[in-house]
Write a structure and sequence with these properties.
The structure holds seven protein chains of seven kinds.
Chain C (H helix, E strand, L loop, with lengths): L1 H22 L3 H27 L3 H31 L9 E2 L1 H5 L1
Helix pairs in contact in C: 1-2, 2-3
Chain D lengths: L6 H17 L5 H23 L5 E5 L12 E5 L1 H24 L6 H20 L3 H19 L5 H32 L4 H7 L6 H19 L7 H8 L2 H26 L5 H23 L4 H29 L3 H36 L10 H4 L1 H15 L5 H15 L3 H27 L15 H16 L6 H16 L1 H9 L2
Helix pairs in contact in D: 1-2, 1-4, 2-3, 2-4, 3-4, 3-10, 3-13, 3-18, 3-19, 4-5, 4-10, 5-6, 5-10, 6-8, 6-9, 7-20, 8-10, 9-10, 9-12, 10-12, 10-13, 11-12, 11-17, 12-13, 12-17, 13-15, 13-16, 13-18, 13-19, 15-17, 15-18, 16-17
Chain E lengths: L1 H20 L3 H21 L3 H24 L11 H25 L13 H6 L1 H5 L4 H9 L1 H21 L7
Helix pairs in contact in E: 1-2, 2-3, 7-8
The chains are: A mainly alpha (112), B mainly alpha (142), C mainly alpha (105), D mainly alpha (512), E mainly alpha (175), F mainly alpha (161), G mainly alpha (88).
Chain lengths: 112, 142, 105, 512, 175, 161, 88
Amino acid sequence: MTVYILCFILFLVGLYGAITRRNLVKIVISLSVMEFSVFLFLALIGYVEGGSAPIIDPAKPDALYVDPLPQAMVLTAIVIGLATTAMLMSVIIRIYRKYKTLDIREIKNLRG
Amino acid sequence: MTLIVKKTTQLLAGIVFLYGIYVILHGHLTPGGGFAGGVIIAGSFILLILAFGSEFMNLTREETGTTLTENLAILAVLLIALAGMIVGARIFFDNWLPAGKVGELVSAGVIPLYNIFVGIEVAASILTIFLALVIFKEEITK
Amino acid sequence: MAALIVISIGVLFNLFGCIGLLRLPDVYNRLQAATKCVTLGCCSILLGVLIHFGITDAGIKALIAIPLLFFSATVAAHALVRGTYHFGVKMSDKSVKDDYKEAVK
Amino acid sequence: MNPLIPLFIAVPLAGAFLTIILGRFLRDAGRYTGLLVLLCLAAVSIFAAATINGEVLAYKVGGWEPVNGIPIGIYMVMDNFTALVLCIINIVGFLALIYSVTYISQYTSENYFYSLFCLMVAGMNGVVLSGDLFNIFVFLEIASIASYALVAFGVEREQLEATFKYQVLGGLASLLILFGIGLIYWKAKTLNIADIKIAMGSNPDKIHYTVIQLLLLSGFGLKAAVIPFHAWLPDAHSSAPSPISAMLSGVLIKAAGIYVLIRIFFNMFIISSEIAVLITTLGALSMVIGVFLAIGQWDIKRLLAYHSISQMGYVILSVGIGMILLARGTKPEVATLAISGGIFHLINHAAFKSLLFLNAGAIEYRTGTRNLKEMGGLSGLMPATSSTSFIASMSISGIPPFNGFFSKLIIIIAAILGKFYLLALIAVIVSIITLASFLKFQRYAFYNKAVVGREQEIREVPFPMVFSMVILGLLCVLLSLLAIPQIRDMFLTPAIKVLTDPQLYTSTILGM
Amino acid sequence: MEAAVSLILVFMILGAVFAIHARDLLSAVISCGIVGYGLVICFLLLKAPDLAIVQIVVETISLVLMVAVVLDSTRQEPFTLPDKQGYVNIATAVLTAGVILYFLNLATGSMDAFGEGSLRMAEHYINGAAAKTGSANLVTGVVFDFRGYDTLGEATVLVTAVLGVITILRIRGKK
Amino acid sequence: MKYVAFFILGLAFWLLITFRITVPNVIAGSAASLICTLIFARYYFSSVGKLVDPRRWFWFLVYLFVFIWSCIKANFDVAYRVLHPKMPIKPGIVKIKTVLKSEFAKMLLANSITMTPGTLTVDIIGDDLYIHWIYIRSQDPEVYTKMITGAFERYIKKFVE
Amino acid sequence: MNTWLEILLYIQIALSGLCLFRIIKGPTIPDRMVAIDIFGILVVGICAIISVQTGKTFILDIGIAWIILSFIGTLTLAKYLSGKKLNQ
């Protein structure tokens, strides 16, 4: 069970960062960390002790494979994470152009 | 970047591109597939841009057609999915080509086709995002 | 068995490289020790893979990976060290000679 | 009906991609493809709502039949509730797009707007139609990312800030949802909504179940802007271009937030009274806090945005009352009444809130300001805007004979019948405060002394904008017909039946 | 396998804490990158090669994008002691995290232990799938055949993001 | 001409990495390397003729052998310096002059120098290579130039130029 | 054989932990970049060891992909150091 607990701790580290940090890029990094922990959690769920990677060799099939469905889910979710990151990055560039700062406290509507 | 980087990048870019195609085409046999291969293909262009600057491949503007390529490819994916409603069992996302023998290069019905088009789409998308973040912002300042 | 020995040697080289990464005094020396040792170590591991699998698809892949790793690691190290110099990181006090200073000016 | 279901996804997606492709050769391509796509969708969704007739249709994507009763592919599910929400999405979307034809021409790169609009509609259709939890997540992301981009379409300061806030909170919501999905998969080993209900069993591990419910509640609550999670809504809704505000406020928070909440809490989880009480409390809080935040606002669109929170509170409150009653097992007919009131209000809110945002957009289009203090006397200058806005204001404040009155009436009656007197009282008070707030809006915008010297510049907005506002105004009046029992039995009651009957949805989909 | 994954997870947590607290933005970006790379090793150990390769490419691309942004803006994050609001935030965050961890710990106590998951729906994916879809890579089979609809959504998300990025980085909004 | 050479090399790479010769595989490989050729071939090779000269291949093999040997030797040297408790290092940047003319040869030389542990190419300006050396054994330019480039330069000259 | 390989695997993972240490401590930015570069190379070794351990050949594909992509990442970082825009 330690693995799961550590995974949750990683999630909470990200959450802590997202709440307390005051820098736009730092917030994005915190979100990525949370993303990582969720991906890892899904991959952990699918793991089967002694199973092999879900790629069948028709010549010598293995007895036990790990669950491919969580992997498919994570695959989709990773791409979505990249899309979100790219969007956030472009917004940050624009905001920096307008305000010359990345500090959230100096940007009017984002304060608080 | 120095001469060393430029020369090596030239050598490597072709290999990277070929490797991306390998990953895409073998998506149903080995790990990878459309997404990973697409990003690797985009990586070969990114490598060249990093080493030589964006004027090198005339990839200076959005008008290079990356968005057009991307949209054509994703439209092709959608059309393959819709083709299942016309040929075969008349179902959305039907695998309407014969499955073939497991482990061969030509097998798995339409999956390689999806892989190829998703790969093109992803390559164009990543390249567009990179160009947008790296080059278009120059235009904002002007 | 031979494969195992070669792989172990590779891991040993990696170990040296990482110790170098920790112990050496400045960035340039760290780059020196670490990149070289680790790259050679990994090449050695890949060679072990080649020996283990023989001339099969896996062995050939390992064989292809070796020159790729060599070229990319080398050029990465070169680009990093040049960037570091231009970034303005000072060399450690132990250094005895700096010919590049005039060239940059 | 069955083979038409994929069209709800395929048509807008194809439209979005074609817009960009054709846009390279024709300048105005987006306008025509967009209108065509949305017209087609609106027609199909009306057809679907008219013909579905209380059935639950499951479309197996890829043709994968269940094995041993366990679904292995993705299911698209269409029932009466879905059809109603689809109608809202596509009709409001169509009208908003007609409105944008002139409104958006003040911006550059119109084609991107139409493409993103189609993608947003596709995403919402996908969320509503899906019967698979992870699929809901994917399409939720399409709709959200398209809306992030659309909020920032004008690329000005406040829009960028609003979109950043919206994106961070939206990303947080997605992660919470994904985490919840993971916890569900851990236990249930399936993703189909109907199958999860079976797999989790009738007597699941209590804490685990509650944690999942809380995670999904906070995730979708963030998307729906229920009160502790509402921080993004006022900024995003007020700074977006007006047709997008109308879509966000009128449709997106319903399709992506409330609809999914209702769907999963009724059809996926076994209703427990603790969660039901929590949901009711959140609804009541949203109602009260939203309206109190709204009353001090002088920016029209901000005012409307806060009212969105408040009105969504009504929906959540009534659904929560229904859930409490269902969980207790007493008075099922009152529970049905409460839920039907909630869904009726959902539909009504889509009509009048989009109309109000379109009005605000029209005012901004002509006067160039959103501040109530700087305008006045517009009723003579912009008669169509003024009259439709009057209808919408009365409707949102619950004045008969407009639609808002009937839905609020049903909700209050249900609350009284269910012996929630305090909640009924709160609902009445909030309604009165809403009326006060909108009287202020009407007075300052339309009937006050005119701003001197600008009468010549200000005239009625162009025809497409007037057209969609008038149609929405007519809808506001016509929707009150849904309160007549016969018509209600035709549309609303079958929709409620899917939710309140725990067996219907599950057994139809799994084919048992 | 659990010990190795736990070890890497500890490293990842350390890296994440550093990434969040680093004074310098580029350091934060780099250590976020290393957390992502650590995730790749976890995927490799957990027998998920597909995820590993996709995570590598995505991590590298996000690293490049983040570096592009940091290069364009500023690297320094001026250090200030948190004000009153800051302390309130930190307290809230720690408290929330603690409560969530406690409940998650309770909630997951009765679940399947690591590596002992049963296969319910997935059994079919493993046993019958290769013959039906013809794909040796089961994940690709699931991604493109059983759940191909999801993948269309995924590709669409990427297109949407590209359109969004181009939209946001336009030179002028209004004519 | 260089297009053809590039195509053949690409196909060879493809066949190596897939390592099976079946009809679909060869067709796929040809298509892939054709696309690759059309995009990248213009940046490669100035003269293809050198590729088919067996003498050059021989010298290349000799060079490879020398390179690997010096690599391993120097690696132990670095390991010794790292592990030694006192860390006997005397780092510095030295300038050496190369006689090689073509860019490809310079690149190879710089890479060989970088890959030999103990030395690291910092920059290349014209004919001058700037080298970071972990232990400067000599202060005399002629001596250290010979020490660093000696063997490599000779063989590279033989098989490239 | 398998036990020994597993020990080697743990050593490699521990070595990547040393890289993390350098990233956290590293006084200058280039230190951290060097560490992430080394980390990338180390993982290629991890891929190779896992492929021998499990007998699955496709893990090497991931190794090659890693070589390529870590090269791109390091070049980007190096370009940052030299103070130019990424497209110059």
